[in-house]
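Now for a sample.
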Amino acid sequence: MTTETLKIFTQLAGNWHFHRTLSTAGSVTGNAHFELVAPNILHYKEHGVFTTDTQKTYQVSREYGYCYDATQDKVAVYFLCANQLDYLFHELNFTSEKDDLLTATGIHVCREDRYSALYEFVHANEFNITYHVMGPRKNYVSTTVFKRN
């Protein structure tokens, strides 16, 4: 039996174009790829160009491991170190299907900073991730729109 969580996890595989808006800094445009590297593990890698509010540009990249746990029907996102799963970033808690939009939330606490994630799965070829980041020296929103290539 395929669950909605497994269906979403499986649909992530492949190539995506993304645009990220950072409320206090600028934006990032680039490409991302989810590759199945082991049963139930997707390696996420993105490359893009960060354009600051003052129009300076920088090459940026990041990587994560997305893991599906069939026993709990959950997806967890991990930081990577040397292409290996390192430590937990957040678990996706699928919350609702409102107006045909499946959503999931996750929370990551890093010292005094809190990253609250909202995933919105629009359809098989589009999803969004919004992070609300709060801390003593951080207060911003990062919104990323992914569209399948």
